[in-house]
Amino acid sequence: MEEPLLSAHVEDVERGPQLDSKDNAESIWDVMTFRSITSVMNHGIVKQLDFEDLLCLPGDMDPAFCHNVLSSCWRDEECRPEPFLLKAIFYAYGWPYLRLGVLKVFNDGLGFVGPLLLNRLIHFLQQVNKWISELIANATEKMMKQKDERVRRTGEILSHIRTLKMYGWEQLFSKWLMETRMLEVKHLATRKYLDAWCVFFWAATPTLFSLCTFGLFSLMGYQLDAATAFISTRRLSRFLQCSVSKHEENVILPGDGSNISPKDMAAVMNDACFAWSSSDDKPESTVLNHMNLSLPKGAMIAVIGEVGSGKSSLLCAILGEMKLIKGSIHSSGSVAYVPQVPWILAGTIRDNILFGRNYDSERYLNTIKVCALDIDISLMAGGDMAYIGEQGVNLSGGQRARLALARAIYQGSDLYLLDDVLSAVDAHVARWILQNAILGPLMSQTTRILCTHNVQAISSADLVIVLDKGEVRWTGSSVDLVVLSIFCAANSFLTLVRAFSFAFGGLQAAVQVHNRLLDKLIDAPVQFFDQTPSGRILNRFSSDLYTIDDSLPFMLNILVANFVGLLGIAVVLSYVQVFFLLLVLPFWLIYSKLQEFFQHKFTEHVTLYQRTSYSETVASLWLSLRLQLIGAFIVTFVAVMAVAGSRSYLPVDFGTPGLVGLALSYASPIVSLLGNFLTSFAETEKELVSVERALEYMDIPQEVMEESKAQDPHWPFRGMIEYKNVTMRYMPTLPPALRDVTFTISGGTQVGIIGRTGAGKSSILNALFRLSPVSSGYILVDGLNIVDVPVRDLRSRLAVVPQSPFLFQGSLRDNLDPLGKSNDTTMWEILEKCHVKGEVEAAGGLDIHVQESGTSFSVGQRQLLCLARALLKSSKVLCLDECTANVDAQTARLLQNTISSGCRGMTVVTIAHRISTVLDMDDILILEQGKLVEQGNPQALLADPSSKFSSFAKASTM
76 lies in a domain? Predict the structure, then answer.
């Protein structure tokens, strides 16, 4: 079904607030003096204005009324052979504009009298202004480029400030930022000096003020003429004649495609190739190639593959974020996307989950429960109204991932794109989320596409997609994998039985059938010998098969083949029949309801905007009228006093006529000067707000930066770490993140820290790196209290791989070693240890350009590069904050081997969710709600069924 865009009826649009003609009738004097705005001005003096304080719109200015008038005229115009929007606009509003236009032409004509008399001076100054404006435009362009780069770098620093502090790179990035700022200031100075020349010419030629105003737009290189306006009108006219499709479908075709997706599929790709959009002229290289997928509605779909295989890119392609190079893609319904690196809104937990939706208490509580957030919220001061900082800085990685998942679930979308949401949480929380959220009732009727390495999630999936190097290698369900395994085992067993049967029978009938077997073998084709093992042939040839017909093996093979074929057909028919029973949801009804809601909200917001604009216009006219009256009064007063003085009506003589004329000439421009003074005063006050905001940030608390003390360049020597009764909280109003924690890590050992998300694992590292102050207790590294070490010096002596991998824009060499202390040979050796040497070589080597936030690499590859950066530091203490969460199991094992072999002699502190990560370590720490509840050797604790670690391990393997 289709309908015109401009099709609302008069009764469909709610009228906005209007003036009551009886209660708000104004006299002619009130209208001419704009007296109605006086009350608004009085309110504005004592308080900040609200929408209720603004002037109500007159009836003929109400957006709803104007919409109805224009709709009526447009319907009449649509009946014509060639409807034209400009005619409809003229019939609706043309006559009032014509009447005002006559007065406007007369007023503008008077304004041109003075400039026309100065034509020759204009020609002289025009060339000067043009030359200066070109210089200003050139300086502005260069300045804006440097400003954009500075803002980008500032955003990069703010987004990863915690990571930068842990690396001790604040001064390095600050230096880079200041270099960009100096270039920006250089071009800004050029522009300011040129602006000063402009002010000089403006002040030296006040009589040309009007002409400079009229010509400024053209002199700066822009052009606005009648043709441009009419072209825009024609485009708008064509737009209003377009139709709106009622189908909630999205079909993307690079050319003329005829592939139509079945209605029971959430997404279909037909030979689709995708690439990331590029702003430069470089040829686009495809990331996903020849994708042929049919993703059914209501299914749980698992996407698996190695790091960099294209899992995240597949979700982005379905989301429409990648450029389609070839083939077609079809998707339908609303989409919710949970990225691998969750985005968190600066606000309360409830704001993050609702995200603009109406509050439904039952769905809200169920969403919190299935995402395992209920316990975390109960421990927070303020519950779900607790304020979360930008990007969720006061939440753990697992809490951020679950919060992003809760937001998506609450939206109630048709299609969910989940990018490895289970990797950031520990095993039993991941199992809870999988069973109660992803497979639970809130999402059971939706389509879920999950990129994961979780074995339990893969086994629970209705469909499994295996990706390798941007291509689909295999698709099927987890049940298919189980059935296939059973078939393989049965086939192997039957083959073994058949081989022994033939061998036994051959021994009995060897003599009787020898001749016949020989004849058959002699006449057998060559392909038989190629396909049959020689050992089997020798068995047949030497066996006594007198009582067994020689055609029996052949017939048995045919029988087995036919049986398997019939069984496969039965399975396929049953599989297809189940999906044929699914019904297509009535999306068009939902769309109609949403469209009605949108039209109502649109009219409401337009009315508020028009009221604001109308009040601003009336206030400007109110001020202009009073300034003109003041100016007229002053000029009249000067003239009357001069006449009275010259006629000796007053005892005071005002001087010669020349002085009187001088006074009158100076009194004449007082109106414009008063207006300009008030405008510049208001603008200056507004601009000073920026200064006030900047000064506020100059008073923010600073990290304690002690004076640099002489430290042994080889400290820490062994990497021994001691926590003594450490209590730490992120804010004074929040509960402690660490509660009286005491433990010792011997130098050169590898220690794992495990616990539920939010238990305080990352807080251990925050305290060690002095990202948050310790409330009580102290921390020793090789016997030295870390508070006695300057904070930047401390962080520079420790190596870390943060939970959120950080790569900045620049070369890969700068990312690995920003301080330039390592040579290329060492870098390549470390990259090989971290198993990313091949990817770096294929991409172009150490000089390749890394995009902002490292988007040119997958999340797993980013973590591998961060590990390489940490190993290049050659520190005695290496801290790993769940560096294997976003990589597949094979890569995780390689990483563990690298850490075990390449970090000998170093103290390695690993925060982990996977039990397998800590099994081979020397010691483990188990945290619960900020407390250390258990410590010991993992193998010894695993053997003790009463230990916390044993229970944790059992829960993760269930």
Answer: no
Cβ neighbours around 865 below 10 Å, total: 26
Does residue 267 contact residue 330 with C-beta atoms inside 8 Å? yes
What are the Cα distances from residue 799, in Å, to 164, 854, 870, 951? Answer: 12, 20, 5, 32
Q: Record the tokens describing residue 9, joined without a space.
A: 């009826």
Phi, psi of 332 (to 5 degrees): -140, 155
| Distance (Å, whole) CA 458 – CA 766 | 35
665 belongs to a structural domain = no
Task: Provide DSSP, 179-240.
Answer: HHHHHHHHHHHHHHHHHHHHHHHHHH-GGGHHHHHHHHHHHTT----HHHHHHHHHHHHHHH
C-beta of residue 858 within 8 angstroms of C-beta of residue 308 = yes
Q: Which domain holds residue 385?
A: 296-320+332-476
DSSP run (H or E) holding 601: helix 587-646
User: How many structural domains is the chain composed of?
Assistant: 4
pLDDT single digits (tens) 700-726: 666 666 655 656 777 888 889 999 999
CB 818 within 8 A of CB 753: no
Q: How far is CA 58 from CA 22, 64, 220, in A?
A: 13, 12, 39
Residues 460, 482: Cα–Cα separation, whole Å: 11
Burial label, 608 (beta-carbon count in 10 A; 0-12, 13-18, 19+)? middle
Name which of 380, 394, 376, 392 is nearest 342 in CA terms. Answer: 392
Three-state SS for 641? helix
Tokens of 136: 């200003």
The predicted model scores a pTM of: 0.55
Short-list 322, 343, 267, 274, CA closest to 298: 267
Q: Tell me: the pLDDT tens digits for 916-956?
A: 778 888 899 999 888 999 898 988 888 888 888 888 877 76
Within this chain, do residues 740 and 814 fall inside the same structural domain, yes or no?
yes
Give me the residues paired with residue 909 across strands: 751, 879
